[in-house]
Amino acid sequence: MEPVVKEDVAEVLRRRFFKPESIRDREAFRQHVIAALKGIQAIDEQTAKSGSAAEELFLKSYPFHPDLTEVLYAKWTQMHGFQRTRGVLRTFTLALREAEKWDESRLVGPAALLNAPGQEDPSEAMRELVTVADTEEHEGRK
After folding, report:
1. Which of 33, 57, 67, 91 is found 20 to 30 A from 47 (Cα to Cα)?
2. What Rg value do the Cα atoms of the chain yield, rounded?
3. In a domain, 123, yes or no
4. What distance in Å separates the CA atoms of residue 129 and residue 87, rounded to the nearest whole number?
5. Is the dihedral of CA 82, 20, 11, 51 positive or negative?
6. Is residue 2 part of a domain?
7. How far apart are CA 103 and CA 78, in angstroms?
């Protein structure tokens, strides 16, 4: 499945990583979105100002942070070596496999790409992204 627009990325990820019955009722996500937004709004003035628009944006992309899916779509899928949908799915598979062991966040955000606290080496997902970025730079594409 090839995302046509960036708004499709979260839906593709949900279908790939969750059972259909667990994602059928979007309104069931709202309580989790509101809880996550309270924490985000406390430290991010722009999100706090956005109010209900932010809530809808996060609801559409839940459980994935909308900024993470935006960056992966807008930046990484333009790279020759990333392979668009396959690259996004592979990156999230690697990240979620490792992060589920230690990340207790209500949203899948950039922290999922990092390694567990206390571990110095980059995560497998991060190594994958670095390899693609290095290849792009080496071949003169940015």
Report:
1. 91
2. 16
3. yes
4. 9
5. negative
6. no
7. 28
Q: What is the DSSP letter of 120?
A: -
Three-state SS sequence of 57-114:
HHHHHCCECHHHHHHHHHCHHHCHHHCHHHHHHHHHHHHHHHHCCCCCCCCECHHHHC
- Is residue 135 within 8 A of residue 73, CB to CB? The reply is no
On whether the CB atoms of residues 58 and 37 are closer than 8 A, the answer is yes
pLDDT beyond 80 at 30 = yes
Length of the chain: 142
Encoding tokens for residue 46?
């722009």
Q: Kindly report, residue by residue over 72-128, the tens digit of the pLDDT.
A: 777 766 666 556 667 777 888 889 999 999 998 888 988 999 999 999 899 998 898
Range of the domain at 103: 8-138
What is the tally of structural domains in the chain?
1
With beta carbons less than 8 A apart as the criterion, state whether 92 and 18 touch: no
At residue 117, the pLDDT reads 92
Residue corresponding to tokens 């999922």: 112
Mention every residue, 6+ apart, whose C-beta is less than 8 A from residue 49: none
- Is residue 88 domain-resident? yes
